[in-house]
Amino acid sequence: MRPFIQHIFLTTLLTAVLAGGVGAQRPTEHQIKAAVVLKFGRFVEWPAGTFADSSSPMTIAVLGRDAIGQLLEEMIPDLTGNIRPVQVVRVERLEDLPTCHILFISASENRRLAGILATLGDRSVLTVGDMEWFARGGGMIRLRFDDERMRMRVNLKAARDADLRISSRLLHLAEIVGEQDR
């Protein structure tokens, strides 16, 4: 297991064990995905002026129906090492989407993905999802499990078009798509 994912997995596992006692179960796929999304803020650079100041919170929005929103909210008190405070907002409709820095697009929005990404345009929002064609369809980071391991597919073109810089430490762990369009 690669160091970043191993760190996330161990952090999530430790949190689950401490919260649930010695007999606690392994973290679920959703718990691991939520922990990874919470850590993305450390590995992405937004354009100057994105945040009002160094104490401004990073907003993670969850669009659609997904267990990750609640898990993100539950994990915030245990979050350590982030550069700034984090807040989570859950919305059912794109029209209700507040200004955010990371947008997790739930699989319930699969049919509307192209429209959602078009509406976001070139705004500096890191888009994350776990749908099959998410990154190849214009999303930035697709999360998936394969052989009980977390895998990422990153669309570099989509990130660059949104003026986001993803750390090489994160890119080293991912399958890269969108490079041919540079």
What structural category characterises the helix and strand content?
alpha/beta
What spatial form do the alpha-carbon principal axes imply?
globular
Which CATH architecture?
3-Layer(aba) Sandwich
CATH topology: Rossmann fold
**SSE pattern, N- to C-terminal:** HHEEHEEHEEEHEHE
In CATH, the homologous superfamily goes by the name Response regulator
Helix segment count? 6
Largest sheet geometry: 7 strands, mixed
Number of domains: 1
Provide a concise account of the structure shown.
This protein has helices at 3-20, 29-39, 68-75, 113-120, 156-161, 168-171, and strands at residues 44-45, 58-63, 86-91, 102-105, 126-129, 141-146, 149-155, 165-166, 175-177.
Structure notes:
The chain is α/β, with parallel strands linked by helices and 182 residues long. The chain has a single domain, classed as Rossmann fold. It is built from six helices and nine strands. A seven-stranded mixed beta sheet has the order 3-2-4-5-6-7-9. Helix 1 (3-20) crosses helix 2 (29-39) and helix 2 (29-39) packs across helix 3 (68-75). The longest helix is centred in the N-terminal third of the chain and has 18 residues, at 3-20. It starts with a helix and ends in a 5-residue tail after the last strand.
